[in-house]
Amino acid sequence: MAEELVTSKVDAGSGGPLLIGFDLGTSWTAIVTNRDHRKRIRSVVGYPRDMIGIKLLGQPFVVGEKAFGMRSYVDLRSPLKEGVLRAFVERDIEVARDFVGHTINNLNPGGEEEVCVIVGVPARSSNANKDLMVKVFQEFTDVVQVISEPFLVAYSQGTLVNCLVIDIGAGTVDICALKGAMPGEKSQVTVKRAGNFVDEKLEALISETYPGVQINRHIVCKLKEEHSYVGQPDEQIIADFRVDGKPVSYDITDAVGAACETLLPGITEAVERLIQTVSPEDQETSLQNIFVAGGGSGIKGIDQLIADALSDYGDVGVTCVTDPIYAVATGALKLASELPPQYWEQLGSTTDY
Asked: What DSSP designation does 221 have?
């Protein structure tokens, strides 16, 4: 994807380490580097189902959009579920290794080049899951650190004091109150009703409204990405389906709006809980500086709906970041560029407040 990177302090030709900001997501992964790589990759690995699949594939596995395009004859697996590695099944760890290894190797690091990665993880990831993430990445890197995704969004925006970040992904919604230091557990909330939950609700609503419609999660996800909104729709949403193999067109306007609005209760409850952890004199400022990132920030009207839901708290300002898909990865690269890798271990130390 030919897009310009945010300027890094490390010059691509300086001979320094390869620095990678890595946003490993449930559905999509975003990567930016100080070598001007900027990639968005579907977070799936495809494995052949049988001998025919092995012959068609010609390799042990395929990754990303290529794997998704072969989904009729490969077994698709995601390295994450609800934003975290599935630690107790070795097969799932192998999927993560294959995905991470393939992705980093495709960046073509030089043989002697040091590879340093900062990886975004959900706000309330357990220490065990963070350790597992580090272990997977250590196989392919020299230095790795995992950092809260909403913190990295705030870092990309240059706003680390008196603000709230809402990062709406596929597996989780991660919300964080920034107070000028690395956030601890009390300053972060992970909500598990996120983009995938919206897909489930939308599929159920369409199936309930139009019995017999042939629909699956891939179709639903595409419809959501193209038409998602909350509040009042800009126009009627007509979608093409099939019933008994025959083409039909149905109005799904109400279904899309209702499915997307299921995100709101979890978000507002989390914000209400986090604002109480902010010093009283800073609460007004924090509520006026709420940033929404992640794929879910593309839902039309999501900023205004959140602001309206929090109106009892006074003047609330909600802004969707301008580069939501790459906000986590860009923040990770910015942090990696501004803090030498030998000091990254200190980033893992947080104090609750």
From this structure: H
pLDDT tens for each residue of 139-185:
999 999 999 899 999 999 988 899 999 999 988 899 999 988 888 88
CATH architecture of 18-151+326-348: 2-Layer Sandwich (3.30)
Entry pTM? 0.84
CATH code: domain 196-261 is: 3.30.420.40
**Cα–Cα distance between 84 and 26 in angstroms, integer?**
8
The residue ranges of every structural domain in the chain are 18-151+326-348, 155-193+263-320, 196-261
Which of these, 347, 333, 344, 348, lies nearest to 8 by C-alpha position?
Answer: 333
- Answer for the pair 39, 21: CB distance below 8 angstroms, yes or no: no
For β-strands 45-48 and 188-191, DSSP reports them as unpaired
- Paired sense of beta strands 115-121 and 143-148, if any: parallel
Q: Whose CA is closest to 190, among 179, 210, 175?
A: 175
pLDDT tens digits along 13-49: 456 899 999 999 888 999 999 999 999 999 999 998 8
CB 176 within 8 Å of CB 150: yes
- The strand order across the sheet containing 213-214 reads 213-214, 238-243, 246-251
Alpha-carbon span 290 to 277, nearest angstrom: 15
Question: How far apart, in whole angstroms, are the C-alpha atoms of residue 234 and residue 240?
Answer: 19
Rounded CA separation 119/141 (Å): 12
DSSP string, 247-275: EEEEE-HHHHHHHHGGGHHHHHHHHHHHH
**Tokens, residue 96:** 């993560």
- Read off the amino acid at residue 48: P
Contact between residue 119 and residue 345 where contact means Cβ atoms under 8 Å apart: no
In degrees and rounded to multiples of 5, residue 288 shows phi and psi of -90, -5
In one letter, which amino acid is 132?
L
CATH ID of 155-193+263-320, from 3.40.50.1100, 3.30.420.40, 3.40.50.10490, 1.10.10.10: 3.30.420.40
| CATH topology agreement for domains 18-151+326-348 and 196-261 | yes
